[in-house]
Amino acid sequence: MPSTYQRYLTLAAILAGLAVALGAFAAHILKPLLEPRLLAAFTTGSEYQMTHALGLLAAAWIGQHHPNNIWFVRAMRCFAAGILLFSGSLYMLSLTGVNQLGMITPLGGICMISAWSFLALAFYTNSKH
Fold first, then answer.
1. What is the largest CA-CA distance in the chain?
2. What is the distance between the alpha carbons of residues 58 and 27, in angstroms, rounded to a whole number?
3. pTM, full prediction
4. pLDDT tens digits for range 56-103
5. Of 34, 26, 22, 21, which Cα lies nearest the Cα of 96?
6. 116 within 8 A of 58, measured Cβ to Cβ
7. Around Cβ 31, how many Cβ atoms within 10 Å?
8. Residue 125 to residues 1, 10, 39, 57, 128, Cα–Cα distance (Å)
9. Among 22, 74, 103, 109, which has the minimal tally of Cβ within 10 Å of its Cβ?
10. Residue 45: which of 2, 94, 11 has the closest Cα?
11. What is the DSSP string of the chain?
């Protein structure tokens, strides 16, 4: 059975690949179909997804070598939740035009900020050992 770190490494790779595919989808398929503000929201979602998938990859890659440091696990969880909430809400907003979905986006942003903070704590607490 794969470890928590292996599952998050796999998820990070999948999310990064999907970010590329969604970015291409936006550029080649959605561009003529969506108004500029909705296309921009979709593109922002894919850019943030890629950036935070790489953060998730780093947290999982390094965290597997420090399995007793809970901050890596917290960072991984927040990266995954942030991508789902932030990027996911922007994708849904763009494709449906339902502006109320934008209320979810800041929750994803909070998760993303928390993930980077937890990653910093993971590095800081490791440096004390």
1. 55
2. 28
3. 0.94
4. 999 999 999 999 999 999 999 999 999 999 999 999 999 999 999 989
5. 34
6. no
7. 13
8. 29, 25, 41, 19, 5
9. 103
10. 94
11. ---HHHHHHHHHHHHHHHHHHHHHHIIIIITTTS-HHHHHHHHHHHHHHHHHHHHHHHHHHHHTT-TT-HHHHHHHHHHHHHIIIIIHHHHHHHHH--GGGGGTHHHHHHHHHHHHHHHHHHHHHHHT-
Give the amino acid at 66. H
| Structure tokens, 34 | 């969506």
The residue behind tokens 């990653």 is 119
Q: Which two tokens stand for residue 58?
A: 């780093």
**Scanning the structure block, which residue is given the tokens 């932030």?**
86
Amino acid at 34: L
